[in-house]
Amino acid sequence: DTEVTQTPKHLVMGMTNKKSLKCEQHMGHRAMYWYKQKAKKPPELMFVYSYEKLSINESVPSRFSPECPNSSLLNLHLHALQPEDSALYLCTHRRGDTQYFGPGTRLTVL
Amino acid sequence: AQSVTQLDSHVSVSEGTPVLLRCNYSSSYSPSLFWYVQHPNKGLQLLLKYTSAATLVKGINGFEAEFKKSETSFHLTKPSAHMSDAAEYFCALYNQGGKLIFGQGTELSVKP
Question: CA of A102, closest CA in chain B: separation in Å?
Fold first, then answer.
């Protein structure tokens, strides 16, 4: 089983709101990723956590704040987003060279 | 630099006919290559992967892909398309820095 769960499935927020996306996996894999995906485009890497430490930040604006409180959980805190941040946000965990994707959170910023 | 090129942005086939989705890669070493499928408003599902054990790789749902080093290609095929195969398909290469390098995607349409 390679399951990744993401909550919520859908999120609508205003530009002044603060919200969080959650990702969970129980495979014990120590590399976890956040991606942003626009319609009809490939996923774009945002952050990588390895052993609960941030190892890659792809120059993501500070209004996105990742957190990895333990080896099973990955959060993405959102604050003061812009309408152009509306997208599908995908979480993955990696075993060896293979990444397994969660179902995503569809975010709409009004 | 490594890269992945999907040669068709859109492919349309009739149900029951073969599917061919083309992917070329560029890498200075023998890469790990992947095909993912994405249905509307869903995450990416791993179809198959190549990691140098065998050049012909079988995946889920009747898909397979052949790694051809001389042509730097990793094309995805299926003998007979089904309506449920209609989706976006992404070819990807694993970067030794821990990243996936994606192609731009191919949208597969299946006509009844």
Answer: 6
Task: Give contacts of B90 with chain A, Cβ < 8 Å.
Answer: 42
The answer to whether the beta carbons of residues A35 and A93 sit under 8 Å apart is no
Q: Hey, what amino acid is at A106?
A: R
Tell me if B77 sits within 8 A of B22, measured CB to CB. no
Q: What type of residue sits at position B84?
A: S
pLDDT < 70 regions, chain B: none
**Residue appearing with tokens 């073969």:** B18
Q: What is the 3-state secondary structure (H, E, C) of chain B?
A: CCEEEECCCEEEEECCCCEEECEEEECCCCCCEEEEEECCCCCCEEEEEECCCCCEEECHHHCEEEEECCCCEEEEEECCCCHHHCEEEEEEEECCCCCEEECCCEEEEEEC
pLDDT at residue A44 is higher than 70: yes
Q: What are phi and psi of B62, to 5 degrees?
A: 80, 5
